[in-house]
């Protein structure tokens, strides 16, 4: 059987192009700090937070405060992809960060409206998407679309920069507090995303050496030989970036081979039948079964586009892949493997995946009800069972919606449940 492998040129979309500015409505000057009260507070303005805010706007819920540490729509997400010099997203055009069921301009529509700004390769991807085939989305298109979505749904007017330090449910209100502000809210939606997974303590004896870092930290520009530890898409971008800079790369994988696939999880989990394997609203799904599915389906994988490049550079010696290699220790001399081999380089970078933020540290521990690293959520509404006015969207909802909850398409599914529940509680008028 012949398998189509996309060309690596798709990885080289331009970044930071000048996009036509979306017309901003005239609004009165607002205070420097958020208001003292609101119907809804959304913590996090990433793709999930943007989807929730846009959905509430359509449902007539306008007394909304959005709090984000960067103060920009999808700012932290884009900072991370730029740190990796990532030019395209694995999510296809159909997985747009908008609202399901409304006649908004969707991501593919937005790209077609700006056809003259796209490269021939990017235009071909849109045609592939229209024909129902797999496609990839340029980061530039995604970033411009997110700003467009934020403006037309008035999210930018309700967005304040701020680091939230606590979320305190009490009766029929929830207090959201942070650096210099307190907001008394009727409902709160936590869209916290994920944080990097740290290396096991056993790998690092004492302080982390200067020659060792994580994927979200700067890499020295004069690195001539880079060591990358990790098997996922982030690791692949690190390898690609180092090769592009002319460095030689050692790539350390625990698995016996790279895993190339279009999506980071099986495509069935983006459909209702896949989500039903986690959904206990009709029939109980044992917790152990869900854990087993998550363990199997959250395995690291890499986009197909990297495959030709990595095979070519491994053949010519610029890339050395250490497969089926368990790490024993990491120090200033390099990465020590379980078989005694020492992999040396100028700098070692960990790309070990991410950990969902489930509300621990913001909500009281008894409210989070953490179990095996996941929060205790109502499966009908995605509210915390012990705090029904606080909701979780994004990766924190994986044990209810399945592994696709981490992805943009899963954010829309979560948003539909959360926004409908909030609108009914607030008493907002129906659809616009």
From TrEMBL:
Highest classification ranks of the organism: Bacteria, Bacillati, Actinomycetota, Actinomycetes, Pseudonocardiales
Xref: InterPro entries: FAD/NAD-bd_sf, FAD/NAD-binding_dom
GO molecular function per UniProt: oxidoreductase activity
Pfam family of the protein (one): Pyr_redox_2
Species, as recorded: Actinophytocola oryzae
SUPFAM superfamilies: FAD/NAD(P)-binding domain
UniProt domain FAD/NAD(P)-binding: residue ranges: 39-257
Protein name from the UniProt record: Pyridine nucleotide-disulfide oxidoreductase
């Amino acid at each position: 059987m012949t398998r189509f492998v996309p060309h690596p040129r798709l990885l080289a979309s331009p970044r930071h192009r000048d996009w036509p500015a979306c017309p901003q409505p005239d609004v009165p000057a607002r205070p420097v700090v958020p208001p003292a009260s609101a119907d809804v507070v959304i913590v996090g303005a990433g793709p999930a937070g943007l989807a929730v805010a846009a959905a509430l706007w359509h449902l007539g819920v306008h007394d909304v405060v959005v709090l984000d540490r960067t103060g920009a729509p999808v700012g932290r997400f884009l900072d991370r992809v730029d740190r990796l010099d990532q030019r395209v997203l694995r999510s296809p055009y159909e997985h747009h960060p908008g609202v399901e069921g409304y006649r908004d301009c969707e991501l593919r529509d937005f790209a077609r409206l700006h056809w003259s700004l796209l490269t021939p390769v990017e235009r071909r991807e849109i045609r592939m998407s229209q024909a129902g085939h797999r496609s990839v989305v340029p980061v530039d298109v995604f970033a411009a679309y997110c700003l467009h979505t934020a403006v037309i749904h008035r999210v930018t007017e309700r967005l304040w920069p701020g680091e939230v330090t606590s979320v305190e449910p009490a009766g029929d209100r929830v207090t959201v507090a942070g650096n210099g502000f307190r907001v008394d809210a009727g409902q709160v939606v936590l869209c916290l995303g994920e944080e990097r997974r740290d290396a096991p303590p056993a790998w690092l004896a004492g302080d982390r050496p200067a020659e060792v870092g994580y994927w979200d930290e700067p890499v020295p520009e004069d690195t001539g030989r880079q060591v990358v530890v990790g098997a996922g898409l982030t690791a692949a971008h690190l390898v690609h970036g180092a090769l592009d800079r002319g460095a030689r790369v050692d790539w350390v994988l625990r698995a016996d081979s790279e895993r190339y696939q279009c999506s980071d999880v099986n495509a069935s989990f983006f459909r209702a039948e896949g989500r039903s394997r986690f959904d206990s609203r009709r029939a109980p799904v044992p917790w152990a079964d869900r854990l087993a599915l998550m363990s199997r389906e959250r395995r690291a994988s890499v986009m197909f586009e990297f495959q030709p490049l990595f095979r070519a550079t491994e053949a010519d010696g610029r890339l050395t892949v250490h497969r089926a290699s368990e790490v024993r220790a990491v120090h200033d001399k390099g990465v020590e493997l379980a078989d005694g081999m020492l992999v040396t380089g100028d700098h070692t970078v960990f790309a070990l995946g991410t950990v969902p933020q489930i509300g621990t540290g913001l909500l009281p521990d008894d409210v989070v009800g953490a179990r095996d690293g996941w929060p205790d959520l109502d499966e009908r509404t995605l509210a915390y069972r012990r705090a029904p006015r606080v909701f979780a969207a994004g990766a924190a909802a994986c044990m209810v919606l399945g592994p696709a909850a981490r992805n943009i398409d899963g954010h829309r599914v979560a948003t539909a449940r959360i926004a409908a529940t909030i609108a009914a509680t607030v008493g907002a008028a129906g659809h616009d």
